[in-house]
Structures are given as C-alpha cells and as structure tokens.
Amino acid sequence: MAQLNNQGSWWSEVMSSNRNELTLAISAIIFTVLWYRWKFSSYSNGGPPLPPGPRSLPIVGYLPFLSRDLHKQFVNMANTYGPIFQFHLGSKLHVVINTPELAKVVVREKDEIFANRNPTIAALGSSYGGRDIVWSDSNSDWRNLRKIFVQEVLSNKNLEASSCFRRDEVRKTIKNVYNKIGTSINISEIAFSTEANVLTSMVWGNTSAEKAKSSNFGAELQMVSANIVVLMGQLNVSDVFPSLAWLDLQGVERNMKRQLNHLDQIFTSIIDDRIESNSKKSKHAVGNEGKKDVLQVLLELMDQKDVISINRTQVKALLQDIMVAGTETSTTLIEWAMAEIMQNSDILKRVQEELEEIVGLDNIVEESHLPKLQYLEATIKETFRLHPVVPFILPRSPSQDCIVGGYTIPKGCTLFLNAWAIHRDPRYWENPLEFNPDRFLRNKYDYIGSNLNFFPFGSGRRSCPGVPLAEKMQMYILASLLHSFDWSLQEGEVYDLSEKFGITLRKREPLIVVPSQRLPNQSLYM
Ligand code: HEM
Predict the structure, then answer these.
(1) What is the Cα–Cα distance from 63 to 87, expressed in whole angstroms?
(2) What is the DSSP-derived secondary structure letter of residue 49?
(3) How many A from CA of 325 to the centre of ligand 1?
(4) By alpha-carbon position, which residue is closest to atom 31 of ligand 1?
(5) pTM of the model
(6) Record-annotated residues binding heme (predicted)?
(7) Which of 87, 102, 356, 382 lies at a 20 to 30 A Cα distance from 416?
C-alpha cells in the first residue's frame, strides 16, 4: 500500500503514552466510524465518487501513516493519487487540493460554499469558541467582525495614522540591535518584539493597565502566541475521534485553555482599565478621530446598538486574532527572508545596493522609501513562495455537498489548499527550488491570490485581511535591518534552511546572527 510508513509518526507516540485510555474508549470509536462509513458509502451510489486516496485501516483510517512533514507527504500523495485526493482520519474525511486550477474552483467559483473553517478543538479553545474572525463559520457575526476589522482597525486612515508607532518601534529595534553589535542575536526574537510592540501601540497604545505596560509583557505574549500556534498545528486524537474528546488524551485542550486564560487576563485588565478611565473623562476628552487607538474604537462600537456593534467577548476574540495572527506569521516570514538572503550573497548585495540608492548611507529607512524598494519586495515574495508561512492556508469546509474536479466533496469535510506544493510545482515555476527573486520582477503577482500559482495569504472571502499591515511591517523591518547593519553567522554556525511543519511553517533551528555597523554616521542609530 502506498505511503504506509509510520516511522517517526505522530500516532506511535500517542499510542505508547496513552495505551490504557485508548483501549477503554475503543468501542465508542467503532460506533462512530461505522456510522460514518455508512454515511460516506452513499456517495458511490449515483453522484460522482469521492476523490481517490490511499487505502487505510479500519477505525483509525490513514492516521497511523501520517508523517511529521505533512507538507512533503502530501506532495508524494498527489503524485500517486492526482491533484485532488482524500483520506480519512478516524471518521473524519479530509480533502487536499494541489493545483491552482482546482484551488480556483474552491476560492472563486464556490467561494461561498467553502467559506466555513471546521475548526479543531485547539482552534476553538484559542478563539473563545470560534467567536473571532479566523475560526468562525461564515455567518453574520463573522461578516460583522470582519467588516469592523477592515473598516475600523486596518482602514487606510488608521494605517496612515499609526505610521508613527511603526517608526518609533523600528527605531527602537535599530537602537537595540546597535547596542548588541558583535554579539549573537536571535532574528525571530527581534522581529517578534518589533511586531508585537507595533501592534500593541496601535491597539491599546493609550492604556495605563499595569499588566500591558510591564517590561516582560512582550516576552509573555511571544511565549503564549508561540504556544497557541504550536497547539493549533498539533494533530489531536480528540479531533479525529470526537467520542474520545472528553479524555483530552494529549492534553491539548487543557493546555490551550491555560494559554487563553493567560491572554484573557491581560485583555480583561486592559479593557477594564480603559472603561474606567473613559468614565472619568467627558466624552470629548477621549480624543479626536485620528488619535483613537483600536481598543477605543471597539469599545465605542460596543456601546453602539445599531449599524455594526460588538460584544465584550468579541472584542477580546478580535484582540487575540490581531496579536496571534499578526505576530507569529510576520515573524516567521522575516526569519526565512533573512536566512535566504544571508545564504545568497549576490542577493544580499543587490538588496543592499538598492537600499543605498533609494535610502542612502547617510539616512535610515522610512516608510516612504518602501514602495521604491522593488528588489526587496521581489525577495520577500520569493521567500513567501518557497516558505509559505501558512503552508495549507487555513482549512475550508463546504456548507453543502458539491463537486470539485469531477469528484464529490461532502458537506462538513475538511479541505486543505496545499500552497506549499503549488508554490514549488515545476509546471508553474521554472527551477522551482532555486531562490530567485528576479522571477517576481519579471511577473507581477499580488498578495490577494489573483493568480493562484501564488497565494501565501489565501484568496477569496476568507483571505487574510491583515495583508496591508503585514506588507508594510515585513518590508520596513527587513529594509531597516539590512540597511543599518551587515550580518554574519556566529562562529561555528552553518547555513540551514530545514523546516518545522505546523499550522505555520517555521525554520527548524532559530537564525542566530551577528550584526555589525553599516552606516558611517553613529547618530543614525540613536
Ligand atoms: C506574514 C504575514 C501573514 C500571513 C502569511 C498570513 C496568512 C493568512 C492566511 C493564509 C489566512 C487564511 C486565508 C484563507 O483562508 O484564504 C489568514 C487569515 C487571517 N489573517 Fe493573516 N496572515 C499574515 C498576517 C496577518 C496580520 C498582520 C493580521 C492582523 C493584524 C492577520 C489577520 C488575519 C485574520 C483576522 C484572518 C482570518 C480571516 C477570515 O477568516 O475571514 N494576518 N492569514
């Protein structure tokens, strides 16, 4: 049987650590699986069949054969079963799409049908039960929250008004790196704290809540966000066998609750603090339009009963989305980009020459320079192509049975769009494994997936609404790090680009590098 190799599989670990509980619960599983088998057998009667897929075991399905590097395994499976294939994990049907043509059917022609997420237990635990934007089903609450996010949180006006926060934080980062010249720096930590500080200034910059102001808040946030992302990427036996969920065999649900409690305490203290300070001020003293932070905008919408409004849980769920979706993703991209650029000395030289020409060695990078940095932009896009931060985008689930590529896709199954495979498919990309930014100078690709050969932020109605901020931040941080400093690996280190699969595709080993001064004028670092 193809692909049946459970060496180093996730399943063998779960089995060895939880043998007793699993044995006890096996009868519940059998019942569920028999029911689903009966349900799915009806697809072969009459309508188009389910997509092809590997044969698998009774009860557990394909579960024991999933490898840790799921993105690579799915490429092998596509080679065997074709551009659309399916497999069962326990009772749950999963479908994987591996070509831009079929992705187009999902996110264009049938976008409305494929607008649900089918969140895992971990995802529900991280999002106040799916009451946020990321994990909510496509319903009126989701539409409302997404509208608030696009029109109020990341509107052009707000993005413009918050440029001072980005400038302040990027400058602090330059100063901070300057103070560490000659020593080893973890790029991911630097990128994360810059991103997190920008987001917190934009979101609750005017807070006086002690927790949010404490010096270790950034580190706490980084730890919690990283834990949330790891837990969301973990295969959880409770998702595969819902009848076992009460046992929480891997402790994913418990652990996620702990992480969310941590964030919730911080959000609660910030919201309470703001409500109290608002009540002490007259309405007019809260600030004029341009100066309101996001929290203020959300709290005003909370009081509003008509047009668009939001409740307290949704405010916290939205804050959680911004903090987790906005930090982990951009941090991952910046680390990959630095790793690729440092490994390719010609590319580093071209990026720095462009910076010299546009910014000048007697100046530091400003946001106004960014639209002119075309080679850097192409380098970032090439990084997204080879290292899509969210390799399977986020799961989609059809709200009704439908047909894709001549096969039936049943209502409620989980569908993955395999961006990792599409981004390195030789049918769409010449020399796909070569890191070559020039391909993005020759052909224009946007970030909203207009061309589905390249869609690192997804596409369609559930595509990433954070693109305008992400685009600015990743360009600004990378341009600043590469213009203000030269970089080398710490002694004894070798270049390494190995991946660690999860809901985000991280670099397996952190990129530890040593900065040196590049700009002649020392005052540019102060
Ligand atoms: C490198 C940076 C980022 C990447 C690669 C990224 C990627 C993604 C992807 C692939 C999706 C799913 C799209 C789909 O299903 O079609 C998504 C959704 C989302 N992202 Fe991002 N993102 C990034 C930055 C951000 C930022 C900065 C924010 C907010 C400040 C953000 C907020 C969201 C939200 C709220 C959703 C859910 C949208 C929905 O379900 O309607 N993201 N992102």
Answers:
(1) 9
(2) P
(3) 6
(4) 466
(5) 0.91
(6) 464
(7) 382
266-308 tens-digit pLDDT = 889 889 988 888 887 755 444 444 467 889 889 888 877 666 6
- What digits encode the pLDDT tens for the residues 157-205? 889 988 998 999 999 999 999 999 999 999 999 999 999 888 888 888 7
Tell how far CA 2 is from the center of its chain.
Answer: 31
Rounded CA separation 447/437 (Å): 15
Q: How far is the CA of 238 from the centre of ligand 1 (A)?
A: 26
**Amino acid identity of 55?**
R
What span, in angstroms and rounded, lies between the C-alpha atoms of 427 and 418?
15
Q: How confident is the model at residue 7 (pLDDT cuts 50, 70, 90)?
A: very low
Report how far ligand 1's centroid is from the alpha carbon of 393 (Å).
Answer: 9
Instruction: Evaluate: CB of 463 within 6 angstroms of ligand 1.
Output: yes
Query: What is the best residue among 146, 464, 476, 477 to mutate for testing ligand 1's pocket, by most ligand atoms within 8 Å of CB?
Result: 464
Q: What tokens appear for 166 in the block?
A: 């980005």
C-beta separation of 390 from 450 below 8 A: no
- The full DSSP string for 309-367 is ---HHHHHHHHHHHHHHHHHHHHHHHHHHHHHHHH-HHHHHHHHHHHHHHT-TTS---G
Q: What's the token pair of residue 411?
A: 């209502």
Is residue 457 lining ligand 1, measured as CB closer than 6 Å?
yes
Cα distance between residue 315 and residue 309, in whole Å: 10
User: Which atom belonging to ligand 1 lies closest to the Cα atom of 195?
Assistant: 27
Record the tokens describing residue 28, joined without a space.
């519940």
Structure token pair of residue 371: 């639209």
Q: DSSP string spanning 399-425?
A: SS-EEETTEEE-TT-EEEE-HHHHHT-
CB of 390 within 6 A of ligand 1: the answer is yes
325 lines ligand 1 (CB under 6 A): yes
The residue type at 202: M
Instruction: Report the candidate in 463, 469, 485 with the shortest Cα–Cα distance to residue 187.
Output: 485
Backbone angles phi, psi at 49, to 5 degrees: -75, 170
Task: Please report the atom of ligand 1 found closest to the CA of residue 460.
Answer: 16
Token pair for 523: 């005052």
* Cα 48 from Cα 52, distance rounded (Å): 11
DSSP string, 420-442: HHHHT-TTTSSSTTS--THHHHH
